[in-house]
């Protein structure tokens, strides 16, 4: 009864979509358990790109059930757009299941996300402005609207009336912003409700039955450990739990049912948005990484910040999520570097730390301790066996496994499905 987790170990965009799609061939079900349309997971099949925000990256396999579980915050407009886009490309969308308990992203969430960012000025978080934070705030504040409310006309009309009155009060009095129109939102969201209704189900019961029937379940993390609201570089984080612990609360599948955790590790580091990034390279190396890796955000198009691999961060992710295997992605992006560095420790006042500092003030002071590796200076995109990788690439990978204390499981050398080297059987 394998239940396998795919979780990002850095600051997102590690290539989780590619790894999930690759493993989904053997999975019965792929489940998103947190986050929302702030995610941008790109899957490439035969050179064709599919960009997914809410739909699980198993959607490209006919017959794989794709579950959006209760821990996700769902923007109906985005979800329906994605469903339409998939249908137009001939993808079967009949196997989507949307949790009744998932919270719904409303127009005021996106507006508050935008206004709050403006108000933060130079202290902005650099959010994706998809309304994710404000939607989770309302969930915790007990004024959220869930999918089960959305598809109940009477309940939705009543809840929206109450909540919108509160939101408009704040919009007008605090933000000096025009109020949002009740009738307009009601009519637009009624239409969304009708279109989403066929997908809605009790995903807790559905997933537990799948598990009991011995189906293979893949949990697709969005974002990553360093963006986790508890474990990341708070407050420069997202509002959910991308770590494997997020699965228990985000799906109703008990933590003890999880068999394996795969941590996705980009062979170097990127971050989009503000916040600390100890190995950031604000120099020609950073630019080379950005250009070689086309590091521009899937959701917002923003240039991603780039830097060397931070093995301290990956080790930390390994502890928190219980990572069994690493899926190292984008190793090919380093093909043309003469020298490659890896951060293997943090130093402050001459002392090596054995933890990731909680305080951003302290984290800003850490001095990364680097090990330098000779580059392999060759094209690895056609390599399909670990033994055929250049010796220097293997040295880099093996040191990564040693420092992080996590086994190598998968190596990815390009965006396509076949550009994947398997060291450990996951399913
Ligand atoms: P995610 O958010 O973790 O799913 O990652 P993104 O999809 O935002 O970003 C990863 C990008 O790298 C996507 O465009 C993938 O198609 C691409 N990708 C994944 N693995 C590899 C790889 O091994 N090599 C290369 N060159 N690209 C990859
Ligand atoms: P995937 O799943 C990279 C970042 C934003 C911002 C912070 C908070 O593609 O890896 P939010 O809109 O969530 O309130 O923004 O988190 N962020 C991501 N960065 N990849 C993502 O998702 C991200 N989702 C959110 O840039 O810094
Ligand atoms: Mg992404």
Summary, kept brief:
33% of the residues lie in helices and 20% in strands. It is of the alpha/beta class and 427 residues long. The strands form five sheets. It has a ten-stranded mixed beta sheet with strand order 9-7-5-2-10-1-11-15-19-20, sandwiched between helices.
Structural class: alpha/beta
User: What hetero molecules are bound to the protein chains?
Assistant: guanosine-5'-diphosphate, 6-O-phosphoryl inosine monophosphate, magnesium ion
Largest sheet: 10 strands, mixed
Shape: globular
Q: Could you give the distance between the termini?
A: 10 Å
Q: State Rg.
A: 22 Å
Topology, number of strands: 20
Continuous helix count: 13
Roughly what fraction of the amino acids lie in strands? 15-25%
Tell me the strand order in the biggest sheet.
Answer: 9-7-5-2-10-1-11-15-19-20
As a percent range, the share of helical residues equals 25-40%
Description of the structure:
There is one protein chain. The protein has 427 residues and is of the alpha/beta class. The chain is 33% helix and 20% strand. The chain has helices spanning 16-24, 76-88, 107-120, 132-140, 147-150, 153-173, 182-196, 203-212, 246-251, 284-292, 311-321, 360-365, 391-404, and strands at 3-8, 29-32, 41-45, 48-52, 65-68, 73-74, 96-99, 103-104, 200-201, 217-220, 260-266, 269-271, 305-307, 309-310, 325-329, 339-348, 351-352, 367-374, 407-412, 420-422. A ten-stranded mixed sheet has the order 9-7-5-2-10-1-11-15-19-20, with helices on both faces. Strands 14, 16, 17 and 18 form a four-stranded mixed sheet that branches. A two-stranded antiparallel sheet has the order 3-4. A hairpin with a 2-residue loop joins strand 3 (41-45) and strand 4 (48-52). The site of 6-O-phosphoryl inosine monophosphate has 24 residues, from helix 4.
């Amino acid at each position: 009864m394998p239940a396998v987790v795919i979780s990002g170990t850095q600051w997102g965009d590690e290539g989780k979509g590619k790894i999930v799609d690759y493993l989904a061939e053997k999975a019965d079900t792929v489940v998103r358990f947190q986050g929302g349309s702030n995610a941008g997971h790109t899957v490439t099949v035969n050179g064709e790109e599919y960009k997914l925000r809410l739909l699980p990256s198993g959607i490209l396999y006919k017959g794989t059930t794709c579950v959006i579980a209760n821990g996700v915050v769902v923007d109906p407009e985005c979800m329906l757009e994605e469903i339409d886009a998939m249908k137009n490309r001939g993808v079967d969308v009949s196997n989507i299941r949307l949790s009744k308990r998932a919270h719904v992203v409303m127009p005021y969430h996106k507006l508050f996300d935008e206004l709050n960012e403006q108000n933060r000025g130079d202290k902005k978080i650099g959010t994706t402005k998809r309304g994710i934070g404000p939607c989770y705030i309302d969930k915790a504040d007990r004024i959220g609207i869930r999918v089960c409310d959305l598809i109940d006309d009477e309940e939705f009309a009543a809840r929206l009336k109450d909540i919108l009155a509160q939101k408009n009060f704040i919009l007008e009095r605090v933000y000096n912003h025009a109020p949002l129109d009740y009738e307009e939102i009601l009519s637009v969201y009624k239409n969304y409700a009708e279109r989403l209704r066929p997908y809605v189900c009790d995903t807790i019961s559905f997933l537990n039955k799948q598990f009991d029937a011995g189906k293979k379940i893949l949990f697709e993390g969005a974002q990553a450990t360093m963006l986790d609201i508890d474990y990341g570089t708070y407050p420069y984080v997202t509002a959910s739990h991308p770590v494997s612990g997020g699965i228990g609360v985000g799906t109703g599948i008990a933590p003890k049912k999880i068999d394996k955790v795969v941590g996705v590790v980009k062979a170097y580091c990127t971050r989009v948005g503000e916040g600390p990034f100890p190995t950031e390279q604000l120099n020609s190396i950073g630019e080379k990484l950005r250009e070689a890796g086309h590091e521009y955000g899937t959701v917002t198009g923003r240039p991603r910040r780039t830097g060397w691999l931070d093995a301290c961060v990956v080790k930390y992710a390994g502890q928190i999520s219980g990572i069994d295997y690493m899926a190292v992605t984008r190793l090919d992006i380093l093909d043309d570097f003469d020298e490659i560095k890896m951060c293997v420790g943090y130093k402050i006042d001459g002392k090596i730390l054995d933890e990731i500092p909680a305080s951003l003030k302290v984290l800003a002071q850490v001095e990364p301790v680097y090990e330098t590796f000779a580059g392999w200076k060759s094209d690895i995109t056609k390599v399909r066996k670990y033994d055929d990788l250049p010796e220097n690439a293997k040295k880099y990978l093996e040191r990564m496994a040693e420092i992080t204390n996590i086994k190598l499981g998968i190596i990815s050398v390009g965006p396509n499905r076949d550009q994947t080297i398997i060291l450990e059987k996951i399913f």
